[in-house]
Amino acid sequence: MDQRDASVPTISRIGPFRASIATFGALIGSGFRRYATYRQATIAGTFTNIVFGFLRCYVLLAVAATAAGQRPAGYTAEQLATYVWVGQGLLAVIGLWGWTELADRIRSGDIAADLLRPVPPLAGFLAADLGRALHGMLTRFAPPLLAGAVFFPLHTPTRWQTVPLFAVSVVLAVVISFGCRFVVNASAYWLQDARGPITLWTLSAGVLGGLYFPLRLLPVELTVALWVATPLPSLLQTPLDVIAERDGPALQAGLVALQVVWAVLILALGALVQRRAERRLVVQGG
């Protein structure tokens, strides 16, 4: 049969790769559309972030005012204000809490349907979470930042590399946050009820992630230990320090490079946990 007349479709060498990219992009789009339907929740969440932004900003500015002309933890008043308001805008982007979908599907048994799909659960949930983060960036990042700029003097980046580094840092923070939440949710494979680990994650992510106060206010040894030994400072502290230009260019790039390391390690841990969980389900006859 002439090849031109053949009706059987063939797959080129780059076909599977293009199909994987298209599938991943479609899952990102579905995640975006899913969160775009909750318009009232978006407005209410944005308003809440702005209210708490005023509270946090006044507290940190009070700390700066009592420093007698010195920089608390190396921040100026403008950098502290930027830290607060950019952080309030990033809350819905990074997504530290509130995600229990994997644990819920494990508990109900719906995870069996996910395991039959051609896309692994880790990749599928990651794509949906990136869509959620994109929606948060487009709808909930700017309003708190604009509110802060109206009422407080904010620090304006002075280095050309700060904004690109910040963008990369935010994407990496989203990936790290998802990886941590995936691993915590995956504990339901063994515990059946993951509310305990999820509660522990909720408490530690805010305190040790740099949400409530800059971790630089802690002793230097403790701050370095947290940064090197845990991924938590890479969630909010790193992107906020990058945009506030708390450190020099070399240290800025070094912190983002550390985020890359943590992103790879967390996703690898998530893949390992998922493989062990699937093996356990097979042994149990699931």
From TrEMBL:
The chain crosses the membrane at residues 47-68, 80-99, 137-154, 166-191, 203-230, 250-273. InterPro entries: ABC-2_transporter-like. The keyword Glycoprotein does not apply. Keywords: Membrane, Transmembrane, Transmembrane helix. It holds the Pfam family ABC2_membrane_6. The keyword Transmembrane applies. This is ABC-2 type transport system permease protein.
